[in-house]
Amino acid sequence: MIKKNIVFLFIISCWCFNLFAQGPVQNMQYPLNFFRYPLDLPPSTAGSFGELRGAHFHSGLDFKTNQRIGYPVHAAYDGYVSRLRVQFGGFGHAIYITHPNGYTTVYGHVKSFTPAMEKLIRDEQYRQQSYEVDFKLDPLQLMVCQGEVIAMSGNEGASAGPHLHFEIRDTQTEETINPQLFGLTIPDKVPPSITAIGIYHLDGNPFSENTKRQFFAVRGSNGNYHLTNPQVINLNGQIGFGISTTDMTSASANHNGIYSCELKLDGVTVYTFAVERFAFDQTHAINAYIDYPELMKTHRWMQKCFILPGSKISLYPQSINRGIVNFNDGAIHDVEYVVKDAAGNTSTLTLKVKSGHTESSLSTIKAAGNLFHYDQKNEFANDKVKVVIMPGNLYDDVNFTYKMLPKRPGAFSATHSIHNRFTPIHDNYELWIKPDSNIGKYADKAVIVSTDGAMAGGTYQDGYIKGQPHAFGDFFIKLDTIPPVVVPINIKPNADLSAAKRIFFRMSDNLSGIKSYAGKIDGEWVLMEWDYKTKILSYCFNTDIAAGKHIFELTVTDSKNNSKYFTAAFNR
Ligand SMILES: [Zn+2]
Question: Is the pTM of this model over 0.85?
Answer without folding.
Answer: yes
